[in-house]
Amino acid sequence: MNGRPILTAEEMRAAEAAAIAAGTPVEALMERAGIAAAEAIWRHAGPLPALVLCGPGNNGGDGYVVARELRERGIEVRVAALADPRSEAARAARESWGGPVVGIDEAAPVPLLVDALFGTGLGRGLDASLAGRLRDLAAAARLAIAIDLPSGAATDDGRLLSPVPDCGLTITFQTLKPSHLLQPAARHMGRIVVADIGIAAQSRLHEIGRPRLRAPGPDDHKYRRGYVAVLAGEMPGASALTAAAAARAGAGYVRLFADLPVAGVPSAVVQAPGTELSEDPRIGALAIGPGLGGGSAARARLDTAVAASSPLVLDADALNLLAGESGRDRLRSLRDAAILTPHAGEFARLFGDGEGSKLERTREAAARAGAVVVFKGADTVAAGPDGRAAIATGASHWLASAGTGDVLTGLIAAMRAGGMEAFAAACAGVWLHGRAAALAGPGLIADDLVARLPEAMRECVD
After folding, report:
1. What is the set of domains in the chain, with CATH numbers?
2. φ, ψ for residue 345, nearest 5 deg
3. How far is CA 324 from CA 199, 305, 347, in A?
4. Is the pLDDT of residue 281 over 80?
5. Alpha carbon distance 337, 339 (integer Å)
6. Rounded to a whole number, what is the largest CA-CA distance in the chain?
7. CA 178 from chain center: how many Å?
8. Of the candidates 108, 114, 109, which has an alpha carbon nearest to the alpha carbon of residue 68?
9. Other residues' Cβ atoms within 10 Å of the Cβ of residue 200
10. Which of 21, 57, 78, 229 is exposed most, by the fewest CB atoms within 10 A?
11. Is the peptide bond before 311 cis (omega within 30 degrees of 0)?
12. Residues near 10 by Cβ (< 8 Å), separated by ≥ 6?
């Protein structure tokens, strides 16, 4: 279920150091990186005339190897350097290029720009003149490609240390880095290729990958497949979306507890009066929050949910109610099985604005709450109280639409009721949500996500 691992700059440096200590020379790693990057560039761009910009560090060394390899494929290649190489490995790579090298100010625009100025671990932005020169060369090119990261992007937190151009392709080595997926840096990456250069990499941070779901077998029945209870409130249409999504995502039994009948609910969803929720050991997940409201009835219903023994999925108004002073006490009392799904506003009300990256804040919030936290957005981050974390990739911007979060709540509840542990259920729900959005395409509304779930599920069932 885990997607590709993600390493911070410090973790990547440690992995490289371990590989070197085990007997792989840094020159060999640079050769592997440059050759792999050149192959990816060739496959993506074809024989376009290329300009490779090389920095003074090992990222620049990779660039010299890229230039040499592209030239050997018959491509017209020019190289421009910011400064002379500083490391022995980068100097050897420049010698292996063997061709002319001009200063960046002297470089003429060409159709393909390869940015190998700075990669992992950049601590400060490019000076204004260099950032401007990079921007102008990228704008004049038909295609810009970054080696490791676009120069000017931080590695670990998605920040832009200085302006960066939009790239059509970013080639990184061995693992993703957080800024490949975190905003605002992620929007400038284009397609991302991870090239294997033979470094062992272990991480507690991954991208959210396609889940593996089990198809029902001959011994399954509706309760074994998962019983999801959804508590409605003042705006029952939102909870209807949650219930419909849970049913479409494989829950064998979905019950919507509402004070009045709710229109638009699939006929397979059982509707029951909202006051009749009782302790039922068959309930595998209890979802509350979409359309709940903020009045006394909503507070009473949330109290009922929190007091129940069923695993919780909390969203929307449930989170807003927990954000009050008295609510924070209840937040601290939630069981580890709870899953919270705030968007940015709800997250700030619950946990404060805080400092650090979205990844750091989500991990800290999960530890404070003792629950799984899914911090939604264009770069959704899920974190567990045990330190595990994952980042979603490529979410459709059309998901910025009313009701789509209510669908996600139902998806996660279905995964949880089906037997997944909380963190895995959260990640599976996020993946299915994003895949259904991709299948729905432009102009989607929340109902379209529900309709596309069978197609998304089909890609996950063994």
Report:
1. 2-203 (3.40.50.10260), 222-458 (3.40.1190.20)
2. -65, -45
3. 47, 17, 13
4. yes
5. 7
6. 79
7. 9
8. 114
9. 9
10. 21
11. no
12. none
Tokens linked to 118: 């700075």
Buried b / exposed e along 95-124 (16+ C-beta atoms within 10 A): ebbeeebeebeebeebebbbbbbbbbbbee
Q: Which pTM was predicted?
A: 0.94
Q: What is the mean pLDDT of residues 241-258?
A: 95
| Gap between the Cα atoms of 415 and 256, Å rounded | 17
The Cα 225–Cα 419 span in angstroms is: 8
The whole-angstrom separation of Cα 161 and Cα 9 is 15
- Please identify which residue in the block is written with the tokens 């002297």: 106
CA 119 – CA 102 distance, rounded (Å): 21
| pLDDT tens figures, 265-280 | 888 888 988 767 777 8
CA distances from 145 to 31, 66, 137, 193, 354 (A): 18, 12, 12, 11, 34
Q: For the segment 10-42, what is each residue's pLDDT rounded down to a tens digit?
A: 999 999 999 999 999 999 999 999 999 999 999
Taking the CA atoms of 320, 228, 423 and 338 in sequence, report the sign of the dihedral they define.
positive
Token pair listed for 366: 């999960």
- What is the model's pLDDT at position 288? 97
> In 10 A of CB 269, how many CB atoms?
19
Token couple for 333:
């009392």
Q: For residues 41 and 114, is the Cβ–Cβ distance under 8 A?
A: yes
| CA dihedral (33, 35, 36, 38) positive or negative | positive
Tokens for 450?
A: 């529900």
